[in-house]
Amino acid sequence: MRTTPIPNMIGLVTALPRRCYPYCGVILGALATLLALLWPGGDAPLLVAGLACSAVVLLVVQVDFTKVGTAWYLLAAGVLLVALGDAANNPVQKLGFGDLLFTAGLLTLTAGIVLLVVARASDGDWGSMIDTAAASAGAALLVWVTLLAPKLDSGSTASGVEIAAALYCLGALALFAATIRLVLGLRAWTFSAALLCLSAGVLIALAVVATTARLNEISGAAWVTRSLQVIAFALLAACALHPSMRKLGSVASERKQELTPSRLVLLTTAAMTSPVLLFIQNASGAKQLDILPSVACSIAVLALVIVRLAGLVLRQQRATRRELVLRRATRSLASASEHDRVCTAIVEAATAVAGEHGRVRASLLLGSGRSTLEFATSGEPISGQQHESSTPLTLQDERIGQLVLESSKPLTDETQSALKSLASQGVLALESLQRTKDLLDERQELKSEL
User: Fold this and answer.
1) Vertex 205, ends 173 and 119: CA angle to 5°?
2) Which of 307, 362, 430, 431 has the CA that lies 20 to 30 A from 183?
3) Could you give the CA distance from residue 379 to residue 383 in angstroms, rounded to a whole number?
């Protein structure tokens, strides 16, 4: 039986140690960069580098199956489109087919990163979305003021070149927003995540250089665009070859929505972009200031920051409310002298804690296996779509029951943490009540013996 070339290539790839994959990708990328710089003419090295990177990504997905294979397929397709677009592009005074391919490649890469973000997010993270929108607004204003506005206002460039430059900037901004969202959602940096972000950053720089070259008719920038393309392809290939690429598509809890120092720096930079650009234009003696775009950007960023702060205030209020409910539950559990009263206090407190998620029904099940019995229930049955959550009750590493919640909306991580704390307090109350009952029984036995 004859073997096909693809399985032979897969066997050749798997024959190498897994830890050698990224180094091989970097070495091949360096050789391709040197070839692109020394090539006397033509875009053959770029096409070879793009095809090699796409082939590497596809082979890795075939060897190491991942749940987000579609995202990697999009990344491979985006690399190939960028290489084809740059090879087919000619510095003419009109919009060419290569410009469309290049923009389509950037947007395809953006779609691949977005799929990775969606696969990683366990639930909606509005904080990261707002931070990403603010950073994207600042970047859009920077691109407009420094690249597009001077040429569009002067009217010295052809309309086709202006459209091509606008498409390049659109693709670069979309890729920038997706990369920022991926970075904000990372709980911890991995080698593959760093390589992917570096590759996206190099591609964004490539789009900026290509835009500048088209608008200013710079013919000597070919070696810069070649180098940036090959470096980006090599980084993306190394990202796919590294073992930590599996973690990029695995479901992971997003970072908390607090304003960390890095996010504060990001929001501050976005808010200061508009006044700083106006100050620089005024100081440099510009004839016309871009007041309207700057004011629009400032209003958008200010509105996003206000929404961000309002969300944090509401979140803090919910946390305070949950804390008060837990304190009341602690007092109720401490004062309860009967088993049924303790169970009722637990389910009532669970219903109050999860009350912000719409309709909630809580049930307390004690026992294990087939001997599990329902001791208390609070809330009405939920009709329609429901989300079920179970919090175990453990005593000395032994499971004695579970607290089951049915809600019309999914529970947040903060609510789950509060329910775990409530379950721990409920276990302590039940244990204390059982110990008190055992002491009273022992006292009664001693009294009878006396």
Assistant:
1) 50
2) 307
3) 12
Identity at 248, one-letter amino acid code: L
Torsions phi, psi of 88, nearest 5?
Answer: -85, -5
Chain centroid to CA 136: how far?
15
- How far apart (Å, rounded) are the C-alpha atoms in residues 224 and 386? 55
Question: Which helix (H) or strand (E) covers residue 429, if one does?
Answer: helix 413-449
- State how far the alpha carbon of 237 is from the alpha carbons of 55, 61, 245, 299, in Å: 9, 12, 11, 40
pTM: 0.74
Structure-token pair, residue 346: 């637990």
What b/e readout covers 395-410, taking b as 16+ CB neighbours within 10 angstroms? eeeeebbbbbbbbeee
285-295 pLDDT per residue, tens: 766 777 888 88
Rounded to an integer, what distance in angstroms lies between the CA atom of residue 110 and that of residue 116? 10
Tell me: the pLDDT tens digits for 320-370?
A: 887 887 777 777 777 777 777 777 777 877 777 777 666 777 777 777 655
Distance CA 305, CA 198 (A): 28
